[in-house]
Design a protein that fits this description.
Length: 407
C-alpha cells in the first residue's frame, strides 16, 4: 500500500488529492458501518506556542503522513484519543436510574386502600358486595378516627393533667374516670390516675365499683408514701395500685383524719415516681385550689381540666377558678385549660346553656360539653360500655384535647 508523505513533491505540485490509507483507518470505517458512533467532543484548540513546534508524527504512526507544523506526540498534552467511542452498558443505565423511595412513597407500587366503612348505608353496601364496593367511611367515622389518632399520639416523656373544681358534685371524678378509661382504650401505654382528693375521694370506687373495691387490697396513697423508697420497679409499684382494665389507679386515703395531710412535697415525690413508668397521668384534685397538696399538683401539671356544670353557680365557680389561677402565677395553665361542662343534673329549660358556654369559652383553650347520662349522674360505677354514644364521644374529645396540650 503506497504511503504519501510531505516529501512526495509530485502530488503537491500537480494538485492531486492527498490520500492517507492505513490499517487502523480501515478498521475504524468498518466499525462505523456496523454501529452508530456516539457524539465525540470537539478537539481542543492548541495554544499558539504549541502550533509553532515542528514535528513529524509519521515517525510514530507507521504509514501515516501529517502536514508540516503539527505538534509532535511528545509535546501534546496527554488526553484521551479523539477517535475513542463509548457506549453505555446495562450496568451504567441501572446505576444512573434513581432508586424509588419505598418508605416515603409507597403509593408508587401499591394503591391506597380506603378504610372499611362501619355501619350505615356504606357499611351495608360493603357487606353485601363482599368488599367489592367500598365507598369509604362517612364524615362522622372519619372524625372518630381522627380523634383516635390524636389520643394515641406517641409522647416523649411523662405528662400530668390535673382535674379540679371549686364545687363538688359537678362531674370532676366521673370525668377523670371516663377520660382515663378512654386514654387506656386508645393509647398503647397504660395511663395512671391518682386520687389526691383530701376529702376521702372515691376515684377508685367509681372506676371499679364499690363491691370490687371493698374486696381488693386496701392499699392507698398513704401506704405508697410509707414505702416509696423501696419501690424500684413497675412490679413493685403495682402492689400499691388498682386496675380498671388498662387504667391504673392510686386510691386516695379514706380516713378523714389522714386524707388532708398530703403535702405538696409528698405529692411531688409520688409524681416523680409515676413519671418513671407512665407517660400520661391524671390527678383528681378534689374540691378547691388551696389545700395542702395543691401547690405541688399545679407545679407539676402540664395542663388542667376545669370541671363545671350548667347551673349558674357551677359556671361562676369555673370562671373564678381560672381567675384565681391567672392571678397566682399560673397564667399558662389558665390560658390552656380545658373547661368540661357536665349536664349531671339535667337542668331545666330556664337555663340558657348556650349563654353559659359562650361565657366560659372565651377564657380557656377549649370547652367541651358532656351530655346528661344516667351512667354518670348516678354517682356509681363508670364504664364506657353503658355510656351513651354522645357521652363517649365527649370523653374522646376531652382526651384528645388533653394529649394535644402535651408539647
Amino acid at each position: 500500500m503506497p504511503v504519501v508523505t510531505p516529501g512526495h513533491s509530485d502530488q503537491f505540485e500537480t494538485g492531486a488529492p492527498l490520500t492517507r490509507r492505513t490499517s487502523w483507518a480501515e478498521a475504524a470505517a468498518a466499525a462505523d458501518a456496523a454501529k452508530p458512533a456516539t457524539q465525540v467532543p470537539a478537539p481542543t484548540r492548541l495554544p499558539a506556542s504549541a502550533q509553532q513546534n515542528q514535528g513529524d508524527v509519521s515517525a510514530h504512526i507507521p504509514g501515516a503522513a501529517v502536514p508540516q507544523g503539527s505538534l509532535a506526540p511528545s509535546d501534546a498534552p496527554a488526553e484521551t484519543p479523539a477517535f475513542r467511542r463509548t457506549r453505555p452498558t446495562v450496568a451504567d443505565t441501572i446505576t444512573e436510574t434513581p432508586m424509588p423511595d419505598f418508605i416515603s412513597s409507597p403509593g408508587l407500587f401499591v394503591k391506597e386502600q380506603k378504610p372499611r366503612p362501619r355501619g350505615g348505608v356504606r357499611g351495608a353496601i360493603y357487606s353485601i358486595t363482599g368488599g367489592a364496593w367500598n365507598l369509604g367511611p362517612n364524615s362522622k367515622q372519619r372524625q372518630e378516627e381522627e380523634l383516635g389518632r390524636r389520643i394515641s399520639r406517641q409522647l416523649q416523656g411523662s405528662y400530668n393533667t390535673a382535674v379540679l373544681s371549686l364545687k363538688g358534685g359537678i362531674g370532676k371524678t366521673s370525668t377523670t374516670v371516663g377520660v382515663g378509661l378512654t386514654l387506656a382504650e386508645y393509647r398503647g401505654d397504660a395511663p395512671c390516675a391518682i386520687d389526691a382528693n383530701p376529702d376521702s375521694g372515691d376515684l377508685v370506687e367509681r372506676a371499679l365499683g364499690e363491691g370490687i373495691y371493698q374486696q381488693s387490697s386496701p392499699r392507698t396513697i398513704t401506704d405508697l408514701l410509707e414505702n416509696i423508697e423501696s419501690i424500684d420497679s413497675l412490679t413493685a409499684l403495682s402492689r400499691y395500685m388498682h386496675h380498671a382494665g388498662r387504667l391504673h389507679l392510686i386510691a386516695g386515703e379514706q380516713d378523714p383524719e389522714v386524707s388532708d395531710s398530703l403535702t405538696a412535697e409528698e405529692y411531688l415525690r409520688i409524681r416523680k415516681l409515676i413519671s418513671a413508668y407512665y407517660s400520661v397521668a391524671l390527678t383528681d384534685c378534689g374540691t378547691g385550689v388551696t389545700h395542702n397538696a395543691m401547690r405541688g399538683i399545679l407545679q407539676s401539671a402540664d395542663n388542667l381540666v376545669i370541671a363545671a356544670g350548667y347551673a349558674v353557680s357551677g359556671a361562676k365557680r369555673a370562671r373564678s377558678t381560672l381567675q384565681w389561677l391567672a392571678s397566682h402565677g399560673y397564667e399558662d395553665l389558665a390560658r390552656n385549660a380545658i373547661v368540661v361542662i357536665t349536664d349531671k343534673d339535667e337542668v331545666s329549660s330556664r337555663v340558657d346553656k348556650d349563654a353559659i358556654e359562650e361565657h366560659l369559652a372565651g377564657i380557656c383553650r377549649e370547652l367541651i360539653a358532656v351530655p346528661h347520662d344516667r351512667g354518670v349522674a348516678d354517682g356509681d360505677l363508670v364504664t364506657l360500655d353503658v355510656l351513651r354514644p354522645d357521652t363517649r364521644r365527649a370523653y374522646k374529645e376531652i382526651a384528645a384535647a388533653i394529649v394535644d396540650g402535651y408539647r
